[in-house]
Design goal:
Elements (H helix, E strand, L loop, with lengths): L8 H8 L3 H8 L4 H15 L10 H8 L7 H14 L1 H4 L3 H10 L4 H16 L8 H10 L4 H11 L10 H9 L6 H13 L9 H7 L6 H17 L1 H4 L3 H6 L6 H15 L10 H7 L5 H13 L6 H10 L3 H14 L1
Helix pairs in contact: 1-3, 2-3, 3-5, 4-5, 5-8, 7-8, 7-9, 8-10, 9-10, 10-12, 11-12, 12-14, 14-17, 17-19, 18-19, 19-21, 20-21
InterPro entries: ARM-like (IPR011989), ARM-type_fold (IPR016024)
Length: about 325
């Protein structure tokens, strides 16, 4: 492709001295050669001086809409770099960018467009919320493109219920060999499970549970966090995994311990007996160095009706340095009284 590789000396000189009005005029030119030269100028300079080229966004968008334009890959790359620099300036073009991606899902340019949309969604998730079905189709056509999954993950932060059409894609992302898209997929599934959406299937839970035995610490931690979100509304779906989740209470990673404790606590809200196998470990975690671990252990012990924890919980309620721990310890004491 013409936009791969490093810059020549001529290209470096061109990007160091920018005549923006000339570039804008070139992007509007009627002859293809002039437009291509203007696109190359933007492409060559956008990585080092992206702020300079933000005014080119509307014109680049229009060039992208021309199926016969030869440098669509360079245009998409430039828009992706500009979205990283100024997502709010690219956000008004989101509808058009999604449309181009949907029409051309298999091209290299669409890969860059998904990167562009991910940057926009990170700043302005609502700009993509109405395009979830198209984003799902494009991401599926690209075999679960990581940038597509990341775009959906950003959208789920503000509109989790809108992600219901992505359920099949996200489930398949976890079912296949997990890659870099698995962690954002877990984030989406967790938010979707906690939302008011009526999930058509909980088949993904089986694949989340399978990740509890993986060697990747980040993936395992996020899998437990996803199960905690599922347990918020559907604790019975997570109960079969409690023995594996309980083992994670021994993790060296405090976030993993905290996620495991909150998961046990949420399942215990429906079935207090799940606490008994990990009762001793939860009691130890009341003295954990990390406040979130202590706080979540309090909740689990309270919901598990562990009467022997009352004394330690009373001590925490009165004297823990963290307000969140004191509040949860006091709540747990109330449950045990």
């Amino acid at each position: 492709m013409d936009w791969d590789g490093g810059q020549t000396v001529e290209q470096q000189q061109r990007s160091e001295s920018v005549d923006l009005p000339l570039v804008l005029a070139g992007l509007d030119a009627t002859d293809s050669t002039t437009r291509q030269e203007a696109v190359r100028t933007v492409r060559d300079g956008v990585e080092s001086k992206p702020g300079t080229y933000v005014p080119t966004v509307p014109k680049l968008r229009e060039l992208l809409r021309e199926p016969a334009f030869e440098l669509r890959g360079a245009v998409a790359f430039s828009l992706a770099e500009l979205a990283v620099e100024a997502p709010s300036d690219v956000a008004p073009s989101a509808d058009a960018l999604v449309a181009v991606a949907a029409e051309n899902p298999d091209t290299a340019a669409t890969g860059e467009l998904l990167r562009c949309l991910a940057a926009v969604a990170a700043e302005r998730p609502t700009a993509l919320a109405d395009h979830v079905p198209e984003l799902v189709d494009v991401t599926e056509a690209r075999d679960g493109d990581e940038w597509g999954i990341r775009t959906l993950a950003h959208v789920s932060q503000s509109r989790p219920e809108a992600l219901e059409p992505a359920l099949g894609l996200l489930t398949e992302t976890l079912a296949s060999a997990p890659d870099d898209g698995a962690v954002p997929a877990l984030s989406v599934l967790g938010r979707l499970a906690r939302s008011e959406a009526e999930l058509s299937s909980l088949a993904f839970v089986e694949h989340v549970i399978a990740l509890l035995d993986c060697d990747d610490g980040e993936l395992r931690r996020n899998a437990i966090g996803c199960l905690a979100d599922v347990a918020h509304r559907r604790p019975e779906a997570v109960e079969p995994a409690c023995s594996q989740v309980g083992a994670a209470l021994e993790s060296d990673d405090p976030k993993t311990r905290a996620n495991a404790a909150v998961t046990i606590g949420r399942v215990a809200a429906a079935d207090p007996s799940v606490v008994e196998p990990v009762r001793a470990r939860l009691l130890e975690l009341l003295e954990d160095d990390h406040q979130y671990v202590r706080a979540n252990a309090c909740i689990a012990l309270g919901r598990g009706d562990v009467a022997e924890a009352r004394g330690r919980l009373s001590t925490l309620a009165a004297g823990d340095p963290e307000p969140s721990v004191r509040d949860r310890a006091a709540w747990a004491c109330g449950e045990l009284s």
